[in-house]
Amino acid sequence: MKILAFQLLSIQLISLFASYGWGEEKSDSMVSGAFIVVEKESPISFLNASGEPMDKKVEVGSVLEPEEWALSGKGGKLSLLLSNGTLVTLLPNTKMKLGDFNQIPFEAGDLKVSDLKEEPSSSRVSLDLDFGALVVKTKKLNKKSSFEIVTQVGTAGIRGTEFQIGSQPESGMQLDVTESTVEFTPPGGSATPVSQGTGLDFSGSGSVIPRAVNPVVAQGIADVTASASIASDNISLSAVSDAMDLTALETGELGDESEQTEGDDGSSDSIESQDAGSEDARGQSGESPPASVEEAPSSTNEISPGETPMIDFLLESDADAKQTRETGKLSKNSKKMAGLPFSKAQLDTFYGFSDEIQSELLSMEISDTLRLLDTDGFTQSLANKLFSFTAETQSIILKLEDSQLISLLNAGMGEDLILSAISTESVDLSHTKNIPNSIPDSTLDQKVLELGDILRTSGNTEIFAEIEEMNNGTWTESWIEIAKTGNLLVQDFNLASDWENLSVLESSLAMANPFYESISTLYNQLLFDQMDAGMNPSVIGGKSFSIASGMYDFSLMTGDKTGLLLGASESLSLDGTIEFTQQSGQPAQVVVSSGGTIEVTAGTNLKSALSDLVVSVRQDILLQEVTLESAREVAIRSLRDLQLEQVSVNAADQVRFRASRNLDVDGLQLSQSLPKLIMEATTIRLRNLDFPSATSVQLNSLKGAIDGKYPNFGTGISLEQQLGRVNFIENVSSGGNLIQDRPSFDQFGGNISIGKFRNP
To answer: How far apart are CA 101 and CA 79, in angstroms?
Structure first.
């Protein structure tokens, strides 16, 4: 397979283009559209159509295929350019399936994506949002086109708009529209139009709550769209058209005309050589292209098994766009622009000024910039006048009221006359109703001082210094809140004695905090492993947790959440008989996590009356003479080694053990009515274990089964032979029947399956 790295010859069809100036449809027959990666910030992962991790490497410029999955973790972001001009951005903690995408091929001409006002040809798009949030910016769709985003609670139909849609299994769907209209249709219900500036909350119970779009959300949508646009605007439509050809080649839609043939020298003829005589290269008239049109250089690099097809000439010379795509981050100026709290109206005004005036506006205090953008009558000519003055004169003029400012600039007064007629003192006296600029700053300074007192009292003054390094010494309300949350997340807690002092945090607040990264990445790993940890759980966090004997009722803490996360970023200790209960609300998962180590005293009994009990640790886990009980499922996850010695587990539905390296079991008692048991690790070693005969047992190791079915048997297996395998070392049985060789496995191991451990 070749990397498609050529551009179709530019045909002089400008006179034939529609009034908007982009390409014509080649035919009425649709082919697969292309999903092109234009931005990628890790952690991002991809699954194939079967839901298994992709072996292929995906980078900026890669072309994805329909039916593949994309997942973003904490801090991850992925922007896709669809060949119909749509930009789709996955926000952090999102899982989306690239559904059906069909589009009529089009003539590209010499245009770029930024030239598009409407899609270049008719298309049909369907995306499946499993969970998380998407920001979408579409071009105006043709009348024959359709665009749908399917969620678990309904479908959003789009016709050329800018919006954000979020979906979570437990909380329903949230829709925020900042441009045009989106129609939301619940299953079996009627469509509800959501117009510009409005939002919609749709709960899993079926209640529909219309509302206005939060300005913060609106600005976030604008920032995401601006970033994705910078990464894609300068991509040529020829490249986009080629991406469609590449998708058609990958899916087998090109047929014999696009298949590679063997040359006399035994090498494969490139796609370029075949296209040289094709209709696309000749033009619709069948004539040769004009002599002035040159074919772009082509690449003959082959795609290795670890790569996805790429359109490598997408990475053009535009500095901002190239940096955005290669690093996932904007250039300095672009980053500053995207981070400013502009409304859509302010953005429209901003882009109406020249590049020079835009630079001047960006160099000002943000309050002055926003004020000027909102001032009626502040035109390009007046802006030129204002910025021709010295900084001293500008500061005096900016102290005037809006009407006075515009009148002064319109009067065309010289700088010397302005300075002689107007003083700072006289301007200040004329503004008796205005609050001086120093007051907001002093208010913020006071809050920063209060934060310092809080951190000193709690003994966490280092947080202040670390935040200052992150924000470059510029404090805002948001940074103050991050510091306060971080202060809570680095405390040491004894769950029994500190019960009254525990703070319950929203998942979005805790998981985004830089001082809780070890737990947030561990939680994302649980989601990736498809271990039920609850979506957006309530969080009780700290640096270290000690949980001693006692009954802990989390009814008030979980509320309507589907999960509760007890997460210690460094260390966790469990000792005694510990029971988690919930007297009210819906059943929820309880996740006990450590971003570092865990210590479980021998004889500990950990019981959850909630639906699931999940224990996850980044380091090794050793459980000796421990009992684990849950109303539905018990799951243990270690990112290193998991060792079980004389452990008893009781669960109604499922027990799951997963370790990235070694899973060693020496004595494990399971309830006889357990429906399902899953063990996964690079290497599994089992001793003194009787699998209940009624239990479906799945054992997954790195190398999987021997001869497609069997484990290793016996104590005489060398360590080298054990690696990557499932090993029945000693006294392993099923239903009380000892399994010590292949014949006994064939006779008694019918409930045991051995497979491969993916993504250890």
So the answer is: 16
Give 660's DSSP letter: S
Fold observed for domain 1-339: Jelly Rolls (2.60.120)
Name the burial class of residue 240, with classes exposed (0-12), middle (13-18) and buried (19+) by CB atoms within 10 angstroms of its CB. Answer: buried
**What pLDDT does 5 receive?**
30
Residue closest to 2 by CA, chosen among 361, 362, 273: 273
pLDDT at residue 523, rounded to an integer: 80
Nearest one of 150, 5, 135, 27 to 79, comparing CA atoms: 135
Q: Which of 95, 41, 42 is nearest to 68 (CA)?
A: 95
DSSP collapsed to 3 states, 110-128: CCEHHHCCECCCCEEEEEE
| Tokens (6 digits) for 288 | 């040769």
pLDDT number for residue 258: 36
- Give the chain's largest Cα–Cα span: 105
- Our CA angle for 280, 24, 260, nearest 5°, is 25
What b/e sequence results for 566-593 when a residue is b if at least 16 CB atoms lie within 10 Å of its CB, and e otherwise? bbbbbbbbbeeebebebeebeebbbbbb
In terms of residues, how long is the chain?
Answer: 760
For CA atoms 263, 264, 267, 273, give the dihedral sign: negative
What CA–CA distances, in Å, run from 340 to 207, 221, 336, 365? 35, 12, 6, 11
Which among 671, 697, 686 is positioned nearest to 732, based on CA atoms?
Answer: 686
Every domain of the chain and the residues it spans: 1-339, 349-429, 438-486, 487-756
Q: For 570, phi and psi rounded to 5 degrees?
A: -120, -50
Average pLDDT along the chain: 78
- Answer whether 119's CB lies under 8 Å from 157's CB: no
Residue partners of 142: CB distance under 8 A and separation at least 6: 118, 119, 121, 122, 123
Q: How confident is the model at residue 340 (pLDDT cuts 50, 70, 90)?
A: low
Alpha helix segments (H runs only) across 142-236: 215-232
Query: Would you state the structure tokens that stand for residue 651, as one six-digit string?
Result: 């669960």
Centre a 10 Å sphere on the Cβ of residue 675 and count the other Cβ atoms it contains.
14
Contact criterion met (CB below 8 Å) for 168 and 535: yes
Ramachandran region of residue 679, left (φ > 0), alpha (ψ -120 to 50) or beta? beta
Burial class (CB in 10 A: 0-12, 13-18, 19+), 744: middle
Whose CA is closest to 713, among 737, 744, 691, 682?
744
Distance CA 698, CA 676 (A): 8
Three-class secondary structure of residue 512 per DSSP: coil
DSSP conformation class of 25: B
Enter the tokens of residue 95: 């899982």
Cα distance between residue 727 and residue 150, in whole Å? 44
Is 318 in contact with 32 (CB distance < 8 Å)?
Answer: no
Kind of pairing, strands 662-670 and 642-651? parallel
Q: Which two tokens stand for residue 388?
A: 């021709």
Q: Which residues contact 481 (CB under 8 A, 6 or more apart)?
A: none
Structure confidence at residue 689 (pLDDT): 95
Q: For 24, which DSSP code?
A: P
Residue 61 and residue 322 in contact, taking contact as beta carbons nearer than 8 Å: no
Distance of alpha carbon 532 from the chain centroid: 19
Mean pLDDT of 706-717: 92
Q: Which tokens sit at 660? A: 């990235």
Read off the pLDDT band of 632 (50, 70, 90).
Answer: confident
pLDDT for res 421: 67
Residue-wise over 490-499: b if at least 16 C-beta within 10 A, else e? bbebebeeee
Amino acid found at 166: G
Please give the C-alpha separations between residue 527 and each of 208, 269, 318, 400, 547, in angstroms, as whole numbers.
28, 45, 37, 55, 25
Secondary structure of residue 479 in the 3-state scheme: helix
Could you tell me how far CA 380 lies from the centroid of its own chain? 39
Over the stretch 428-474, which tens digit does the pLDDT of each residue have? 555 544 444 444 456 888 888 888 888 888 888 888 888 888 888 88
Amino acid 309: pLDDT: 57
